[in-house]
Write a structure and sequence with these properties.
By secondary structure, the chain is α+β, with helices and mostly antiparallel strands. The termini are far apart.
């Protein structure tokens, strides 16, 4: 409703008041914005002042421009693991060249790659900082960097590598200062004479001489582009050792030169068509014993700090064990191992199992300085060595499989229907995953990978330093599209021996800069798996060495876990290179004990003019022979063993039970295998397959000492002795029991007894038809008197009681009787047989490859278990008389059907 006014005058006054109020409000709003703007301006001024003060403080700590540091290089000293100097690196191969002798083609290649606006900026190129990101996306990673050449000179000559705002501000400030003090040509001259190239080469002049045997002025376009591209990653872009990567890098440089107008597109295309190795000369200078290791040190420092070790005056403290390195070099040189020819190559990496510190690097045989490093640079298919990493490790980690987990070795295909074969083209039926790994069966390995899934397996391998960007089922047996290096495999296996903790292999512990600043380069440990996975996979790999394909690397008293591996040629390559049946492309052995891990690769470089490209059956043993030689030297006295974690339990399992069942009191020892389970996952059901033996125990066992003949005689009775023989075991002074007689006689005599010694005996009746059918043991003991003393025969009840050997004594006595040396015991009380009843009689020379990997020591045979010797009151039968188990003659059949 409209307002009511008493007069026109009143309405005018009212309207005037409202109009005045609106105008007043309109004037107030601009006043508010003005205050806001003034406040922001004030804040900005304060911020600028604070920033200026902060900038002043930061640059105040910047070092001065030192002409000597800018133009001269300072060698770095390298120390071994003991702190002793092993070499001084830098200022070794350097030819200083002034700016006016640098050819324009090389200058343009460097500018196009490193700093195309070098002559347009004042030390810092703001435009290029943004452009670098676009270039990297469009033309590939590494196409351009964000720093100018001026900044690189400052960073490499005067500053530390701290990734802080202060260091970056100082770099920018000093870059401006450098541009004020020196000409562009002088700055470029500094840069081109200090950059590092592979083979301990510094500066572009020496690089031209080293790689092409030419003066700088003679370089062709494609050669200048290659020299300009190498410094970003010297080892990766080395045209001698990595021609494929080097050629890609060179082509990027040529593309950039055309983009920035230094050459035409046609010139770039023509230069790209030249093979990168076509004009590279061979380096004939031989490497010193530490050269491969030193090269790794230089590369590691460069990658982690962006410091050029050859010119920065560093003290580099490394992980090198000089004695181990000497051993590796001796092995590679053929001092301990005979190689078939000079062309066969090998790479060996030795690291500390607990820390990942690299102790030695065997870069190759007869390698020149700066030559290809087969321990770190090679990428070859790993074959069956990948099975613990990609198959059994992941499935134990995620599915908690036991070492006994039954898996069927049978005709099988990949998910796409492609058949997969074992190395022997045969199938062994149901077996434990322990035996499947020991005998390098391919089909169980694929089934394990399928059970855990590709994604989990891929992540597991990546956590061990194996860079799998993709994964397929064929990877289960090592059929990788892109291979791995010995150093990567050593790093992965070391985590199994280190309770599941992965330490990236590294050669440098710390560096000390010229100003005394210390920088630690040791990587942080990373949990890669549960401790139960690490221990159980390790114990399975001990079986590989104890009775499986790696049996030939056994060293007395040294507990070694490891895996063999070989790879096959494609059908096309077999025909192309006339590869004979049974030959392999690569042969590996990777193994470890609690203190050292070593990975060995052997094979040939395959080129069009290669006379031989394959490994025959003898050649395939070289990887294992090299491993054994190195380990014998560095760890021959190391009897340490892997400690069982609380997350794992060991159980006596009856062979052939599926699912696993505990062995009963009446299960023959030869039918018992000792296996590991994740705690809480172990079986609780006891097998009822075997019942109490039906052979009577020998009775009326008596013992007598004949003082005249110094002999002991035993006699006993048995109700039905027609179809039984009697096994007599003897123990002296409570030592281990040994079988001393097996016959149908009911008496036994031993002469020349030791005065004062205690002689204990057990007598067991054994069926002649089935020696697994055995009676309980009758027992007695006697102490031989000293000369002219009485014979202290023990009472029968006391003899029965005292003759109960403890569990350890039973086990030890029986094992020694059986001839099973305790060296190589896997920590589960089964004397080198892994507790799974197999002592591994195998044959050499069977082929293992991508579709059927050859187990280097041949096919495993099950020779039965290593049973415990029971005491008198126990009804479990002891072992048979000949020290092996009753299934020995049919061992292969039992291995197929009973595991």
């Amino acid at each position: 409703m409209s307002e009511q006014y008493t007069s026109r005058e009143e309405r005018r006054k009212k309207q005037a008041q409202q109009s005045s109020k609106k105008k007043k409000n309109k004037k107030q709003k601009p006043g508010l914005w003005k205050k806001i703007l003034i406040s922001l301006l004030a804040i900005g001024i304060v911020g600028m002042l604070a920033g200026g003060v902060t900038f002043a403080v930061m640059v105040a700590g910047a070092p001065p421009l030192d002409d000597k540091k800018l133009k001269d290089s300072f060698s770095s000293k390298i120390y071994d693991m003991n702190g002793d100097e092993i070499t001084e690196f830098g200022q070794v191969k350097r030819t200083y060249v002034p700016y006016d002798e640098i050819p324009k083609v090389l200058e343009n290649a460097v500018l196009a790659t490193e700093d195309a606006r070098f002559y347009d900026h004042n030390g810092v190129d703001v435009i290029r900082l943004g452009g670098a990101l676009v270039a990297n996306i469009q033309e590939g990673f590494g196409a351009e960097g964000g720093s100018t050449i001026t900044q690189q000179v400052i960073k490499n000559s005067l500053l530390t590598t701290e990734k802080t705002i202060t260091r970056k501000v100082q770099e920018l400030w000093l870059s401006f200062q450098l541009e004020q003090k020196y000409s562009k040509e002088e700055i470029l001259e500094m840069y081109l004479n200090k950059i590092y190239f592979p083979g301990n080469v510094y500066g572009v002049a020496q690089a031209a001489e080293s790689f092409y045997g030419k003066d700088l002025s003679e370089l062709e376009l494609h050669e200048a582009a290659m020299i300009a591209g190498i410094p970003q990653s010297p080892n990766n872009y080395n045209p001698r050792t990595n021609p494929e990567s080097a050629e890609k890098r060179r082509n990027i440089v040529l593309t950039l030169m055309a983009k920035h107008g230094f050459i035409t597109e046609a010139e770039a295309k023509e230069a790209k068509s030249v093979p990168v190795q076509s004009t590279v000369i061979e380096d004939t200078e031989k490497a010193n014993p530490y050269h491969a290791f030193v090269e790794e040190v230089i590369e590691e420092v460069k990658e982690k700090t962006d410091i050029d070790a050859g010119s920065a005056g560093l003290e580099i403290y490394t992980t090198l064990d000089p004695d181990a390195q000497d051993t590796v070099e001796n092995v590679l040189n053929g001092d301990a191992v005979s190689f078939p020819d000079d062309k066969l190559q090998a790479g060996l990496a030795l690291i500390d199992t607990k820390t990942g510190e690299i102790r030695a690097i065997g870069g190759g045989r007869n390698q020149p300085v700066g030559g290809y490093n087969y321990a770190t640079d090679t990428r070859r298919q790993p074959g069956s060595t990948i099975k613990p990493v990609l198959d059994y490790g992941p499935v134990i980690e995620h599915e908690k499989w036991s070492t006994y987990h039954p898996i069927k070795d049978e005709p099988y295909t990949y998910s796409n229907g492609t058949p997969i074969n074992n190395y022997d083209r045969n199938f062994k039926g149901t077996m434990s995953i322990r035996d499947a790994l020991a005998d390098s069966r391919n089909i169980p390995a694929l089934k394990a990978l399928q059970a855990v899934g590709l994604e989990k397996a891929q992540k597991f391998a990546q956590g061990l330093g194996i860079p799998l960007e993709e994964i397929y089922e064929s990877y289960a047996i090592g059929g990788f599209d892109h291979g791995v290096s010995p150093l990567q495999m050593a790093g992965a296996f070391s985590a199994f021996g280190n309770n599941g903790i992965f330490n990236e292999p590294h050669a440098v512990k710390k560096i000390v800069l010229s100003d005394g600043t210390e920088i630690s380069l040791a990587p942080d440990p990373e949990p890669a798996m549960s401790d139960y996975t690490a221990f159980m996979v390790t114990d399975m790999m001990k079986s590989v060495v104890e009775y499986g394909t790696g049996r030939s690397v056994q060293i007395p008293r040294v507990n070694i876990a490891g895996k063999t591996g070989t790879t096959n040629f494609s059908e096309d390559d077999k025909a192309k290179y006339d590869v004979p049946s049974g030959a392999a492309k690569d042969a590996w052995f990777v193994g470890y004990n609690p203190n050292y891990t070593a990975a060995v690769w052997t094979g040939y470089n395959i080129t069009e003019d290669s006379e031989k490209v394959y490994l025959n059956s003898e050649d395939q043993r070289l990887a294992r022979a090299m491993f054994k030689e190195v380990f014998t030297e560095i760890a021959g006295d190391d009897d340490s063993d892997f400690e069982q974690p609380n997350s794992v339990v060991e159980k006596a399992i009856e062979k052939g039970s599926n699912p696993a069942k505990l062995a009963s009191d009446y299960t023959p020892a030869s039918n018992i295998t000792y296996e590991y389970f994740v705690k809480g996952e172990e079986p609780t059901t006891v097998s009822k397959k075997f019942e109490k033996p039906d052979i009577d125990k020998p009775s009326n066992l008596s013992i007598n000492y004949d003082q005249v003949n110094n002999s002991i005689s035993l006699s006993w009775e048995h109700g039905n002795s027609e179809n039984v023989s009697f096994e007599v075991k003897q123990s002296i002074d409570e030592g281990p029991y040994e079988v001393v007689n097996t016959s149908k006689d009911k008496s036994f005599t031993v002469g020349d007894v030791i005065p004062g010694a205690i002689y204990s005996y057990q007598v067991v009746a054994v069926s002649d038809e089935d020696n697994s059918n055995r009676s309980d043991a009758a027992a007695t003991k006697l102490q031989v008197p000293e000369p002219e003393g009485d014979v202290p025969e023990l009472p029968e009840d006391e003899a029965d009681q005292d003759s109960q050997p403890d569990n350890e004594g039973n086990e030890e006595g029986n094992n020694e009787n059986n001839g099973n040396n305790q060296d190589g015991n896997n920590g589960n009380g089964n004397n080198g047989n892994n507790g799974n009843g197999q002592n591994g009689n195998t044959d050499d020379g069977n082929q293992e490859n991508d579709q059927g990997n050859k187990p280097e020591d041949g096919q495993n045979e099950d020779a039965g278990g290593t049973p415990d010797t029971p005491d008198v009151e126990t009804t479990v039968p002891p072992t048979n008389s000949n020290g092996s188990n009753e299934e020995e003659e049919n061992s292969e059949e039992d291995s197929e059907e009973g595991q």
